[in-house]
Amino acid sequence: MHIQISVTSDFICPWCYIGERRLARALERLPTGIEVQLQWLPFELNPDMPPEGMSRRTYLSRKFGSWERAQAIQARTVLAGRDDGVTFDYEAIKRTPNTFLAHRVSWLAQREGKQRAWVDAALQAYFAHGRDIGSPGVLAEIAAGIGLDRNAVAAFLSSDDGVEGVRALERIALELGVQGVPFFDIAGAAIVGAQPAETIYQNIIEVAARLAPRPAA
């Protein structure tokens, strides 16, 4: 049985990072016979972010009202991700990037059969290592680490390839009413937020039961 799971997310969303790991844990437990086809769909938390990004401290202070409050919120995500093996190094993150280029590489990686590896690598690069995932050079380097051709990715990002494709996928999310991420669509069953791995697992099992062929009368 094949089950399609679409994950709408953004690369600067800490709960998307946690949700990605929880999804991976849920998939590891699936019984034989259930095969999942994954697709990540783009969502920009900051569609108006300048292409060069901005100081993370400035961004978070504006978003949450103060740097102190932002730090308290960050500390909660660190605790939330600990049991899932999610590593955050907020001290290493100096800039909040514009994520559109990262979504374009994700679009490309899907066509190369490497989207899942790309999502994991990009999230780790940003949250665990503080890399600027708004930089074309950094993105090409990360892509090379998952087996994509660095020069081809650099050329892709310097062109307009994939721009309309990503924009179209973003419009689909808006039309579906997605307002927060991560958003999991499990063959039509929606899960909003980084729910526990057990919740994701149970939802997949329930969908599988619903889709299973019924025995002939």
Explain how this protein is built.
The structure is a single chain. By secondary structure, the chain is an alpha+beta fold. Helices cover 51% and strands 13% of the residues. The protein contains 9 helices and 6 strands, in the order E-H-E-E-H-H-E-H-H-H-H-H-E-E-H. It has helices at residues 14-28, 56-64, 67-82, 100-111, 115-127, 136-145, 150-157, 163-175, 197-211; strands at residues 2-9, 35-42, 54-55, 95-96, 183-186, 189-192. The strands form 2 sheets. The protein has a 4-stranded mixed β-sheet with strand order 2-1-5-6. Strands 3-4 form a two-stranded antiparallel sheet. Strand 1 (2-9), helix 1 and strand 2 (35-42) form a beta-alpha-beta unit. The two termini are 21 Å apart.
**Broad shape:** globular
Mean pLDDT: 95
The largest pleated sheet is described as: 4 strands, mixed
Order of helices and strands: EHEEHHEHHHHHEEH
Low-confidence stretches: none
Helix content: 40-55%
How are the strands of the biggest sheet laid out side by side?
2-1-5-6
How many helical elements? Answer: 9
Strand content: 5-15%
Helix-strand makeup class = alpha+beta
Distance N terminus to C terminus? 21 Å
Radius of gyration using CA atoms only: 18 Å
